[in-house]
Amino acid sequence: MSNLQLKPTEENKLDYVLDAENDGENRQYIIPWSREQHLQSIRDCNIAHLIVWSETRVGYVILAGLLDANQSVEFRRIVITDKGKGYGKQTVEHVKKLAFKNYNAHRLWLDVKVQNHRAQAIYKAAGFAIEGTLRECIKSKNGYESLVIMSILQREYRNISLIIVRQATLEDLTTVANILFEAILWLEQKNMTFLNKDEVSIDLVRPDIEAGLFYIAFYEGVAAGVLRFQTEDLVFWADIPQEDSAFIQRLAVRRSFAGGIVSSALMQWAVDQSRKLGKSYLRLDCAVDRSRLRAVYENFGFQYHSDKLVEPYFVARYEYKL
After folding, report:
1. What is the pLDDT of residues 79-112, one digit of tens each?
2. Is the pTM of this model over 0.85?
3. Domain coverage including residue 177
4. Number of domains the chain is built from
5. CB atoms within 10 A of CB 162
6. Which of 114, 120, 174, 274 could form a disulfide with 146 if both were Cys (CB 3.0 to 4.6 A apart)?
7. Contact between residue 112 and residue 147 where contact means Cβ atoms under 8 Å apart
């Protein structure tokens, strides 16, 4: 997918566009346009009507408001025809780059039907935040439908692009242990649980680093967060088949980098790595009483699976379908 490109839509490609948006799987999430509406948008200098190309056509996108005085660009439409290969996520990344670097947008925004949970998860993972809901604003044959408004700002896009995730080495041993220890101390002050201090001692972290399990997120060269990524979890997920899953454990972010950008970058890295390994699910767990952390996972796109008691921990388990 590294050769994915966005190219201006030509009039002779509109049959493809019309067929794509009238496909039953796509039609339920968009409001199809007529050929004339598409023709007008192709000719409008305030709109970018683009075909998504890999080795062949895999979809199309529409951006509007390119000349907006407030530099607020609308990500008006995305339709992917070659599904299940990650083209949607890749296209969203290309659109962000186009909006912020080529069109100098301050804000990139979109609306998505409230029932389109898969699309919302992709946008959240790409850094879009939910602004609100336009309740029952569209009349359809089934009644009225609501739209969720989401956006990402230029500075947020820049912040995400400044984060690099790499595998920890023994040179990072103290850094990894310190980030985990800092997280434990902060949670103790809040009367919440994470791990026992003994579990993040250098002697216990060392074998995991030697096994290549820990990864570090760097923000402008500064270590900001860590996670342990593994392809087996026989402690908290012993009751499920292991071969189709990857697992996140011990995700921790320094308090000076709290706010969601670093944790989202680490989770997105884990999603991408899981896909590369051919997994079907990315799974994780957290203490049942950590409502804010659970909301972070849910906003990213993880779905609640179940609760499980593993003495001394009572955890909520989540999964992300890849």
Report:
1. 999 887 888 888 999 999 999 999 999 999 999 9
2. no
3. 163-321
4. 2
5. 14
6. 114
7. yes
| Residues 12 and 155 both lie in one domain | yes
Considering the domain architecture, whether residues 176 and 102 belong to the same structural domain is answered as: no
Q: Are 208 and 256 in contact (CB under 8 A)?
A: no
| pLDDT, tens digit, 9 for 90 and up, residues 48-81 | 999 999 889 999 999 999 999 999 999 999 999 9
Looking at the structure, tell me whether residues 129 and 180 fall in a common domain: no
Final residue of a structural domain among 159, 189, 212: 159
264: closest CA among 208, 219, 321, 214? 219
Confidence of residue 162 (pLDDT cuts 50, 70, 90): confident
Instruction: Collect all residues with Cβ–Cβ distance below 8 Å to 158 and sequence separation of at least 6.
Output: 100
User: Order of strands across the sheet with 47-53?
Assistant: 5-8, 47-53, 57-64, 72-80, 107-113, 143-153, 129-140
Q: Do 267 and 138 lie in a common domain? A: no
User: Quick check: 94 and 4 in contact, CB under 8 A?
Assistant: yes
